[in-house]
What does this fold into?
Amino acid sequence: MDFNMTPPTTEMEQFRQEVRTWLEENIDERMKEPVDEDDFTGEMYSYWREKHQQLAKKGWLNPTYPKEYGGGGLTGAHEAVIVQELREARACSNMSDRRTPESIMVWGSEEQKQKFLVPILTAKVTTWQKLTEPHSGSDLASYESKAVRDGDDWILNGSNVFISGRGARPDYLCGPMQTDRDAPRHRNLGYFLIPADQPGVEIRPMNLVVGNTHSHTIFLTNVRVPGNHLIGGDHQGWQVLSTQLEQEHGGDGGGGGSLAPNRSVESLITYARETKVNGRSLGSYPLAGQSTTEAYIDGHVDKLFSQRAYWIHQSGSEPAHEGALSHLFDKLYGIRHEARFREVMGPYSLLGTTDPLAPHGGLQEIRMRNALAISHRAGSLNIAKVVLARRMGVSRTKERAAPMRTKGAKSAH
Amino acid sequence: MDVLLNEEEEMLRKATREFFESECPPKLVRAMETDDLGYPPDLWRKTAEMGFIGLALPKQYGGEGASLLTLGLLLEAVGRAVAPLPLHSTLVAALTIADAGDRQQCQRILPQVSSGNLIMTWAVTERDPRLNPEDVATTAKAEGDHYVISGSKLFVENFNASDQCLVACRTAPGSVVGEGISLFIVDTKSPGVSHVLLPTLGGEKQSRVVFDRVKVPKANLVGGLNKGWPIVERMLERATALICAQIVGASRKAMEMAIDFSKKRIVFGRPLGSFQANQHLCADMVIWVDGTEMLTFEALWRLSEGLPATKEVSTAKAVCNERCQMVLRNANHIHGGIAQIKEFDLNLWFRRASAWMMRFGTTFEHRKIIAKAVLAA
Ligand SMILES: Cc1cc2nc3c(=O)[nH]c(=O)nc-3n(C[C@H](O)[C@H](O)[C@H](O)COP(=O)(O)OP(=O)(O)OC[C@H]3O[C@@H](n4cnc5c(N)ncnc54)[C@H](O)[C@@H]3O)c2cc1C
It folds into this structure.
């Protein structure tokens, strides 16, 4: 057992220094991640597309994927360092969704890995995860968007909502399509990588209340996709999707995102410490101090849960309930956390980024709106509870984890 | 013993609900978020014509003389429609004049308020949002037959639309908490008054107001010199109880929308409402809504009866802050992704009510007050 996020070795320290120096020398201050997503410009998008390619070359964009597929071939400890330093430098996160590569890694043929995975992991192309349909998000197995064979190709028709992604359009929209209208649920889907820059693909922005999201509606009208864009068999889409959902439901410990210090908890603590009420720090008042302490404890437990799930994923063991638990805790904690900000900051927590008195540049107002999405994005809170219960065997059969890359790369295909 | 609404109260509840439901659709609420004035003058006029603005103002000054509890029913209906009207701020100020103003002030202001011709607000908070007297640093200095006010106030509601503003000022250094504060009626168009609108989550109008050597006639002092804080305390107590009514109204409506949605949305081949997980969320909501409503009515009833109500008002507000937020959250949760779309109405309720909860003290201040009352020997 070792609770260190990174081993306290000189080698690790040197690596951290290397990453930090590179970021200091290579990232333009003006291009850093803005507090408000609305301030993310087209210029920033182009800048970061280029930077991500440079980061990928160094193996730092997808550190733990194998080198031969464009990853860094590095350890989880390296990833922790990279994630921490990137966050510290306010670097923009990857423009591609994090989950599609996992599915290709596990279910793609060698040819598909070369064709799709390498360009994705090296940031030459981008992907958006296309799952939710207007009639259903929770019940993904009820997918209605259809793919019909036409010679070697497929013709796609359907629509989606809430598809997150930066930029005007990705290179690929990735998700399931119904390939067999007569087959039973879970056996009627195929998983496709759909080139997005072609006639029949219409992408429209959605205007959401929540902060820091770029969300889209997507319409596919007679979109032609070559047969080799189908990942897994034409009735295996649900299994491919399960790998993706395993990750979405916490199976990769948040992909290392939680390995960095929790900014949000830190900012609450700073606020409670530095705000003075009658000459005393706000945090020294019992109730404000208590809320801040609870936030710290919750945040710490949250980190431990993700660290455990992350480690299980990295070490190639099969997760039981750990990912699902981490995913659910993250949601529940997020909701409690947001309330604490309001209690400690009062009306200041509602001030937007343009007001000079807004704490932490208005970050909190954005977080308030963001917190609205916690119950929904990456699967609803109710579903997260069901997933966890099933992993605990509270169901007819105890559900097992879908194959993931570190283990499943060998076993699934 | 009878904690239910009587027939007359039920009728008023019905009438006010119907009025705002028909006169104030979500489209209007949304339009007012980007409107410079922030409220529809037409609806304000109609509200006055219905006799709603003067409902709880004294009869001799053009009001209806109804109780605060009755007024609570009106504000519940306002909250239910999240009506973008400067009603709460106007009434808070007007009721304070009715409570502590002299005859001349009452005559000058209250009939105008009842008829819808005068919009008001109040300004106490400066830097610290906790509404403590120590935090009042804005000064008023006597100069001839005037006071000269200098300082700045924060989170002032509807200032942009208001004609008159009640301003708490320091007129003497206060050694004992609460001493040395006086309350003034300030014409918002006076030279030296300026304001900036705050960008807030709620989309309502709040301002930071600066008073730069603003001259106010001596006749505008409300209550005695240096004796303003007890008046402010009473004002805040009424205002808190009344905002709770507004929060409860909005929360109940959000709950109803969520229950309605549960019946309509099909998930896994059957109505969402048939899943027990959803039923649990609904059961929680109704406990919280009914609970906060009873606490609010109790507080308003005590105020109406002239009974001490500090503990009850704070209990209502502390619970509103926590539980009504959970009601709105559950309602949002039940709706799934669709409620995150700006054009979908629910977020208007979420954002407005969240903003109301942040007014008149967070849970902390109110728990502190409850603790003091409960633990007193
Ligand atoms: C900010 C944001 C970003 C998103 N990003 C993406 C993205 O990039 N890609 C993508 O594909 N999707 C994305 N989504 C969509 C998200 O995954 C869905 O909103 C979510 O899965 C819920 O689906 P739904 O909205 O259709 O709600 P529904 O599935 O209709 O659910 C409605 C309600 O029913 C409840 N419910 C459903 N089934 C059950 C059950 N069996 N038992 C009890 N309760 C149940 C749910 O909890 C919810 O409260 C995003 C959503 C948001 C808000």
Q: What stands out?
A: Strands of chain A lie at 127-129, 146-150, 153-164, 172-178, 189-195, 201-206, 215-226, 230-231, 276-277, 280-281. The first helix of chain A runs from residue 10 to 26. The first strand of chain A starts at residue 127 and ends at 129.
